[in-house]
From TrEMBL:
<dbReference type="InterPro" id="IPR017871">
    <property type="entry name" value="ABC_transporter-like_CS"/>
</dbReference>
<dbReference type="Pfam" id="PF00005">
    <property type="entry name" value="ABC_tran"/>
</dbReference>
<dbReference type="GO" id="GO:1902495">
    <property type="term" value="C:transmembrane transporter complex"/>
</dbReference>
<dbReference type="InterPro" id="IPR003593">
    <property type="entry name" value="AAA+_ATPase"/>
</dbReference>
<protein>
    <submittedName>
        <fullName>ABC-type antimicrobial peptide transport system, ATPase component</fullName>
    </submittedName>
</protein>
<dbReference type="InterPro" id="IPR027417">
    <property type="entry name" value="P-loop_NTPase"/>
</dbReference>
<keyword id="KW-0813">Transport</keyword>
<comment type="similarity">
    <text>Belongs to the ABC transporter superfamily. Macrolide exporter (TC 3.A.1.122) family.</text>
</comment>
<keyword id="KW-0547">Nucleotide-binding</keyword>
<keyword id="KW-0067">ATP-binding</keyword>
<dbReference type="InterPro" id="IPR003439">
    <property type="entry name" value="ABC_transporter-like_ATP-bd"/>
</dbReference>
<feature type="domain" description="ABC transporter">
    <location>
        <begin position="2"/>
        <end position="233"/>
    </location>
</feature>
<dbReference type="GO" id="GO:0005524">
    <property type="term" value="F:ATP binding"/>
</dbReference>
<dbReference type="GO" id="GO:0016887">
    <property type="term" value="F:ATP hydrolysis activity"/>
</dbReference>
<dbReference type="InterPro" id="IPR017911">
    <property type="entry name" value="MacB-like_ATP-bd"/>
</dbReference>
<dbReference type="GO" id="GO:0022857">
    <property type="term" value="F:transmembrane transporter activity"/>
</dbReference>
Length: 233
């Protein structure tokens, strides 16, 4: 599904060239549950942004479902992101003036889905994350855990194959964080490919495959055959 080959990403900071990714090669199969861990500044988020097609590598090849995506136009990239990839961020990135339901609905509006179908999909999405009674609440009326549930519902509203989560529990208390991880894992059990970026070993250690990145390089990748972390057939 995701195939990265010799990916490099460099940035120019003043007169200094910073290499955020240094020859990363990585394959992630459909339905996998992968965590990417490493210290601050190691390249975790840059790697996620490349996988998410939010950033283009300076060198290397990226195949998504066998399709080379590094040379696509901006419109083509936007279409691939919209249809194939969901995003969950540490700081939620919800629109403050919109209700929970309206935030979840936004990707459907951008995709041109008819109003009646949008309402049905949003109602189902809210039920799936346990927020039916918070549909008309705005972000400042919700707890951190509820905000992340809205963000997950929005990320999944287009039924993407891949869900990318960047420090999804980093802004939550321990109980809310546990509930969010369990919600993400339930999506993986349904067949969604789940990639979590985290600095927290207790979060990263739950994944079926654990990847560590340091100074822009993958230094080890550990696998274990935990059937509890595999998607249902």
């Amino acid at each position: 599904m995701i195939e990265l080959a010799h990916i490099r990403r460099t940035f120019q900071v003043g007169e200094q060239t910073v290499q955020a990714l240094d020859g990363v090669s990585l394959s992630i199969a459909k339905g996998e549950y992968v965590s990417v861990m490493g210290p601050s500044g190691s390249g975790k988020s840059t790697l996620l942004n490349v996988i998410a097609l939010l950033d283009q590598p300076s060198e290397g090849r990226y195949l998504l479902n066998g399709r080379p995506v590094t040379q696509l136009s901006d419109d083509e990239l936007a279409k691939v992101r919209r249809e194939n990839i969901g995003f969950v961020f540490q700081f939620f990135h919800l629109i403050p003036r919109l209700t929970a339901a309206e935030n979840i609905e936004m990707p459907l509006i951008l995709a041109g889905v008819a109003p009646k179908k949008r309402r049905q999909k949003v109602a189902t999405a809210l039920a799936n994350v346990g927020l039916e009674n918070r549909a008309h609440h705005k972000p400042d009326q919700l707890s951190g855990g509820q905000l992340q549930r809205v963000a997950i519902a929005r990320a999944m509203i287009m039924a993407p194959e891949i869900l990318l989560a960047d420090e999804p529990t980093g802004n939550l208390d321990s109980q809310s964080g546990k509930e969010i991880i369990e919600l993400l894992e339930s999506l993986n059990h349904q067949g969604v490919t789940l990639v979590i970026i985290t600095h927290d070993p207790s979060i990263g250690g739950r994944a079926a495959r654990k990847i560590r990145i340091v100074d822009g390089k993958i230094v080890n990748a550990a696998d274990h055959a935990s059937s509890t972390n595999k998607p249902n057939p």
